[in-house]
């Protein structure tokens, strides 16, 4: 069974109340829910939030919401609490081979097929999985907000970095992407639930703290992260100004 969980925190620093922001007549969280529920691979889609206003908005749509703690450091931690609550309340059956897909609550136009292409590799042996996209410009390659990935021959992550890796010796940095097939991280995560529980118990690691990338904690602990290449480009809404940009991008 694959459960889609949408972490939706109310107190965003740059955009308080973001999940309830209006986007052409629908709230952000409604749009994410509508897109996620079209994915053929998901047995259930649930919103995990820390605010009663979001719970009420979701339930008024006839959808499921789980109240979680306010102090979670990441969406991964919120996903685990939500899944654990669903099991403890008897809503879903406990099974170590279940998977959770963490669907970003600030991507109102995520394509359901993007979720399904990640779900397609979840065969019980995969511990963790996420997506990557090819880098086709120097601007993206050297953007410190974009995590780049080194992968092995089995499409598993060796390392994630905000820096452009690998370093291309004797080539101008502006031309690195013309000489190597670089990949950037696309933040849709899948976790086998036994692994999800385990990684939320790990203390922050030195590499994670250096790069501010939580997936490095998992790699340092010895977990394998499978990568799936995607061509989907989903606009993210980080601030009120991004709403109009997102609408334009899908018109």
Question: Which descriptors would you attach to this protein?
Answer:
two-stranded antiparallel sheet, alpha/beta, single chain, 251 residues, globular, Spore Coat Polysaccharide Biosynthesis Protein SpsA, Chain A
Structure commentary:
The chain is 29% helix and 22% strand. With 251 residues, it is an alpha/beta fold. The protein has one domain (2-249): Spore Coat Polysaccharide Biosynthesis Protein SpsA, Chain A, CATH 3.90.550.10. The protein starts with a strand and ends with a helix. The model has no long low-confidence stretch (mean pLDDT 94).
Question: What is the element layout, followed by pairings?
Answer:
Blueprint (H helix, E strand, L loop, with lengths): L1 E7 L13 E2 L2 E2 H9 L7 E6 L2 H9 L3 E4 L7 H14 L10 E4 L9 H8 L8 E7 L3 H4 L6 E4 L5 E5 L21 E10 H7 L6 H6 L3 H6 L4 E5 L11 H9 L2
Parallel strand pairs: 1-4, 1-6, 4-5, 7-11
Antiparallel strand pairs: 2-3, 6-10, 7-10, 8-9
What's the gist of this structure?
This protein has helices spanning 28-36, 52-60, 75-88, 112-119, 138-141, 193-199, 206-211, 215-220, 241-249, and strands at 2-8, 22-23, 26-27, 44-49, 64-67, 99-102, 128-134, 148-151, 157-161, 183-192, 225-229.
